Amino acid sequence: MSPAAYRKADSGPRAPGLPKTFTNIRDILDERVSPGGLVNVVGMVKDFRLPTATTGSDFKSTLTLFDVSTQEDAGIVFNVFRPEADMPQVGARDVVVIISAKVQRYRANPLSLISNRSTAIYVYQASAIPRPPRSAGVALMPLNANQKKAAIDKEHHDYVSHFYHEIDKDMAPDDAEFQEKAKMSLNIKDKFSLLKDVRDGRFYDLIAQVARDPFDVLDKVTLYVSDYTENEAFFHYTYDGCKDMTAGGDPYGYTSSSMGQTKKEWVGPYGKKAIQLTCYEPHASFIRSEVVAGDWVSLRNVQIKYGHDGNNLEGFMREERNSAADKVNVDTLEIRDRETMDPRLKEGIRRWRDYDKQMKTQIKEIKSATTVGAKRKAEELEPGEKKLSSKERRRLKRAALEKREAEQKVEKVMDLGLNEQVTCESHSQQAVSTIATILEPVDIETTIKGQKMKVALPFTCSKYLTRVRVVDFYPPALEDFASSRESSAFDVLSDHSGDEDDSDSNSAPSDEEDDRRRGVQRIWEWRFALQLEDAAPAKHSQPKRLWVLVDNAEAQCLTGLDATNLRRDPDNLVALRERMHNLWGTLEEHKTANPSRRQAEAAVGRKRLRRGDVVGLETRPPLESSDIEDEAAKGEVEVSNKPFTCCIKQYGIRVAEPNASKADAGKGMKWVKMFELFGTKICL
Predict the structure, then answer these.
(1) HSE (CB half, 13 Å, CA atoms) of 106?
(2) Where is each Telomeric single stranded DNA binding POT1/Cdc13 domain found (predicted)?
């Protein structure tokens, strides 16, 4: 609804409209203005919280404003950060003109405003604002020397005069009530507590870690949190990893399985160190979308009382009365930034570390005791078997060591010539596969209409240990090995990569200034592919090759680097080039020295873009019959690099297939075999 729709008809001179560069508050609350944008606003003061000190040099005060578009609602919150001497002084029903305030989204709360260095605030004293057509300039309170000066003129003064005398001023408290609430804003009690100190019937602010994924129950969410302190009134959560042991001498209940929870479900501490919280709206919606097991969260105004069974303390978070609409009292905390970290969070992480060390030690002791007990039982169950003397045991031990040394010598001979700077998570008993073996089709025997038939599988879910060398890579420029996408509320989920929902964000370069203006945060991720061939291909035959995708997590493992905008981060690009040189030798130099090949690769990329195929490896890398090799039509290049041992896994993806006879993955879809590098690391 436009501002004019809210103005009353006037039989006298036409009322001045909202100045052209201004925005009514309803449009902001209805999100017609994007977070991060700058706006100009006129509003009447409904509530004011006096300035309080922050962790920095500024103070913070909060104004709640409303205009004719929101006079029936709570209004909009305006957070002001300034030195105490520069804070605006406002009274009940004063009119405030704000120039260049930033629109922000804080947690799941409605949009609000926040000051910045360019923000100018003008206060018109309510008691001095004359009736129109007289100008309200006489009511403008003086500015101090440090306040921002902006272009405010007769147009603004005239509008303030009409605004003040047409708005419903009963929506704001009178002066006495206003001043009382302002004074009360300084008397906010610090309700923070450790869980070990919480008591029945009180409200607390907590900083804790989420012990398991939130459990959704209709209109509420159940949350389990811990700050790694113990409270005797809490439920005793148990560990079922060693079911055959007794609970004696085990303060954390490691050996009990009464809860029946697995370690996969429960990531928090055992014993009486965690509390169950029941969270209602609006907190529940925020928890569903933003909170997962392992997150550290700030929880405000948590009611502590005994649960329905009357045996254990529980927590409850309900909608607050007399608060701004949909106020959320849950916030996820960043644990990587030491400079801005709350000291109370740092202490919680320290307790977490100490608990983790203690738990690992106790589990190790329990398992060791279990092993010793099992050996003793085995000896007791076989009394007829001759007991070995110490000399015989030493002889057997020496023989085992000699056998292992011989095996290691064989392995060393086999590994001769391999790149020692590349390692992988291989197992000694795992056989080494060749590329030719990996590419072999797999058939299964089945019965169709009573007849036995062999059916070729489109792919298998398999893992391989192989020895290979890199003969090509894609994209052709290292600067494109990292791509970006817009951040998502689900990035905290461990299985969310953003590939499916955010692929559009990779299709075109992003303007960083535009992203900042829109309040968009971008996440940079590794995404590239390597073409591999056997370390020792068969003579007199075309060597078998395959492409392997390297996703963000595996690229971090491979290079030890985090993805950034490589076109703007030369240091990270140099580090990447050095690491990849250890992997593929002179390959990049040969590709760079061959401009016709680079042009052909770029042309293939443009062709894929036109036909809607993969760009930037968003869906899949080239397969064995690479478009780049086919269409570039270039000869082989002699590359100097060492073979290395790596791990490869095979899987399948569904892609569009217009030919119905080839659609083996549902209507209009077919399966495509894929390969991915995993568990491989370049050691410097």
Answers:
(1) 15
(2) 22-168
